Amino acid sequence: xxxxxxxxxxxxxxxxxxxxxxxxxxxxxxxxxxxxxxxxxxxxxxxxxxxxxxxxxxxxxxxxxxxxxxxxxxxxxxxxxxxxxxxxxxxxxxxxxxxxxxxxxxxxxxxxxxxxxxxxxxxxxxxxxxxxxxxxxxxxxxxxxxxxxxxxxxxxxxxxxx
Amino acid sequence: xxxxxxxxxxxxxxxxxxxxxxxxxxxxxxxxxxxxxxxxxxxxxxxxxxxxxxxxxxxxxxxxxxxxxxxxxxxxxxxxxxxxxxxxxxxxxxxxxxxxxxxxxxxxxxxxxxxxxxxxxxxxxxxxxxxxxxxxxxxxxxxxxxxxxxxxxxxxxxxxxxxxxxxxxxxxxxxxxxxxxxxxxxxxxxxxxxxxxxxxxxxxxxxxxxxxxxxxxxxxxxxxxxxxxxxxxxxxxxxxxxxxxxxxxxxxxxxxxxxxxxxxxxxxxxxxxxxxxxxxxxxxxxxxxxxxxxxxxxxxxxxxxxxxxxxxxxxxxxxxxxxxxxxxxxxxxxxxxxxxxxxxxxxxxxxxxxxxxxxxxxxxxxxxxxxxxxxxxxxxxxxxxxxxxxxxxxxxxxxxxxxxxxxxxxxxxxxxxxxxxxxxxxxxxxxxxxxxxxxx
Lengths: 162, 440
Fold this sequence. Notes:
heterodimer; A: 5 helices; globular; B: 440 residues; alpha+beta; three-stranded antiparallel beta sheet; 16% strand
């Protein structure tokens, strides 16, 4: 069994996309422990405290075209300090940095991040993401299969910063 | 006074506070304060307008979204106000106990986040919690454990820690079983020991000496104020105090819109004086009502009442964490039979106004709702604690100005920032408007 942690806020436009995708793909998969975590802030550290392999799902902002898929090993994620953020700014990059500073071990796993288009409150998900939903769902299934069966690292790392 | 050059201390984006704000403090050539401003530029969120036309049933879920750190303060304040507007009987003792328990959870997680992740770096000479974690790992891990326990209480009672789903008008949509609460007890007991250790640790910290002349405002209840109160005590913590009914609070204090901030500022109407809400106000008015375990922690802390130095708020928050953990254990031990969920429907609807006030982690959180004959919100007024503290924060900056003159500029600027951080401001909660005028 693997753990899929889906992050996002369903009320803020594209920020809810990966939550919905995770539910679509993982809800009935007995191989997956799905955690729809919302925006857990520091709570993400506890969710990553597992011996299971982890797929972390989130939207990202890197300047790429909305709908672009980014794939990274968790251990290769660029990290950000907590220096200037309140808890409102404690995203995965910041929390992972704190975890490493505390000497915590990251689980083996990957981030699948989809480039967001907008975060407007109460607005629907961007067409650019919706049109790619089926392809992204298929890629998510592929990564679940890979992690469940072999623990194979992702073979399509995106070179863009996440 | 010898002349110096004009000096401006400013930070354009405050670090380690909840939300987005800046400050500036300007001193003229004689070292006198010409301007002291806490500018909250985080956009207003118009919750009071969003609530208009909504059914009373929707209000707890909507106001929970005001804050992810202190949603219970908004949900329970709204519930109390609407229960009064609807003419409902006060919640049962069992529901009140569960409300108090979930509020303990919120105090624990909010205070722990501020103490260990936002405030402690100031005392240990670090810019960030990450930098601090590298050399103070046990301290940070302890803070995370304590915070997690607070979150666990909120998850068990509320369904989830961020924007809990179970608080309702009249009670909860689901109540926990005694076994579910008892399962929390071991980790609560461990966290209580660690909170006590943390008080002893914080008592050793060097603290700047910046006593201020405060007017403290805190809810009045038979117990240490938290989820319930029909009156507010306003006083200097030295014996001079006035008791004001919660319903009359805005007759005694006034919110004002200022040009430099998206958050209103509050002052006492009669004197124009700013006032302080939050942990210092609570402990100065109600220390005798602390749980005995917290009383012992207070005695060990070295704090002398009234606490009038904002830097000592880290100790006060830790004492309140001890209180909340100890009280949570007592409430769980007393919960031997499951309280029935209460989702109360009013017998009939009529135009009405209701007011409710609770003690958010950061202080008084006051709600007023006007309902129409269908139970829909006609008008909503929410006065958050950080909004009430804004004017007091600016007064503190004025108060420390003379001590800044001898400091190097960067150090003086950091001291201003430390003063603001000592208040644990929740800027995102504070952004509410009286009026918005649009010129076309």
